[in-house]
Amino acid sequence: MSASRQPVLGILGGGQLARMLALAAAPLGVNALVVDSAADACAGQVAPLVKADWTDYAALEDFARKVDVVTFDFENVPAETAQWLAERVAVFPNPRALAVAQDRLAEKTLFRECGLATPEFMAVDDRAGLDRALAVVGAPAILKTRRLGYDGKGQFRLKTMADADAAWAALGAQAAKHGLILEAFVPFQRELSVLAVRGRGGDFRTWPLTRNWHVDGVLSMSLAPAPDIDTLQPRATELARTLAERLDYVGVFALELFVQEGELLGNEMAPRVHNSGHWTIEGAHTSQFENHVRAVLGLPLGDTGARGLSAMFNWIGELPGPAPVLRGVDAHWHDYGKPARAGRKVGHATVCAPDAATLAQRLEALGKALGREAQVAPTVEALRRG
Length: 386
Ligand code: AMP
What we know:
Elements: E1 8-12, H1 16-25, E2 31-36, E3 49-51, H2 57-66, E4 69-72, H3 79-86, E5 90-91, H4 95-102, H5 104-113, E6 121-124, H6 127-137, E7 141-145, E8 155-158, H7 164-171, H8 175-178, E9 180-184, E10 190-198, E11 204-206, E12 210-215, E13 218-224, H9 229-247, E14 251-260, E15 263-270, H10 280-283, H11 288-297, E16 309-316, E17 332-335, E18 345-353, H12 356-369, H13 373-385
Helix pairs in contact: 1-11, 3-4, 12-13
The structure holds adenosine monophosphate (AMP).
Catalytic activity: 5-amino-1-(5-phospho-beta-D-ribosyl)imidazole + hydrogencarbonate + ATP = 5-carboxyamino-1-(5-phospho-D-ribosyl)imidazole + ADP + phosphate + 2 H(+)
Domain ATP-grasp: 108-297
Binding site for ATP: 104, 144, 149-155, 183-186, 191, 214, 267-268
């Protein structure tokens, strides 16, 4: 990094994660430069944006010359692009870690090698392979694309063996291109994520465990620290550390877990800052965004401790009204500056409180003010149950 100018963080992908990374980088004296194929990508509202696609090597060459380090807002940057950049400039997380996290089969295989149990799974390459996998995995099950699936997209739920034809009709065409995996459906009691960060020198930290609620495969709400933190945190931290060390990972990642009868099962790993860690902006001493910037630039990591309790609501499709609706309601508002569109993450809000009873009250008040009572209900219930 040059001493004569401010360091520049290159970010591949210009969505809300890049936007929040750029906003966290600024107070550290770090400028961001973002690449996205869409000229109106929302990170472009807060940082300079290069419009280029992942195979525009002339634009990427120029980008690599202008930045000190490259990182990702988007994990599906082609592995070849990440590797090509890594030959020119420091890229964190490294392309091998990215490649493992891009492939559900490689990811689950690694989880098992690291001692993290997973739902039963089997690769599916053709229609006969689906029958073979169903015979092993059983039903109910979920057929998923190995690559390029996110937020429940590229998935088909099979209630019984008789759904095999329908599952193949939905996803069979993707078998040749992205590969498929059949996973046992887990009747989990809770979903958790552990947000972790590893620095360039190997320093490793986790934030307190986060409990998550998904609706139709998309994150709806997060609560941190998760109420069952005492029993599960040490094991989750140890697993995240093992994974990070195996991958020589640098930066923030999220490990998504199911809790079934007190045991942790690995669902997936996101090789980047993650939606379930957005609460850390106001709810932790150092946010996931700031620590990611620190990690990839080789700066010391900040304290990952929580300041109290936090709950985060995702706004999907459209914002539930303009920010002034929050007057009198104690919440932190995040508008990503994206046009409304069905299924799209357009913003979030975080509510913080010193204790569970106050947080439950504030959540209920916000849910009511915004007409989102149903969205807050499971989190309020979990807080009241303790
Ligand atoms: P994914 O994109 O794989 O993280 O899936 C999105 C969400 O679908 C998860 O957070 C779960 O709520 C649900 N899901 C995915 N895989 C399974 C599974 N094997 N069993 C039960 N629910 C699942």
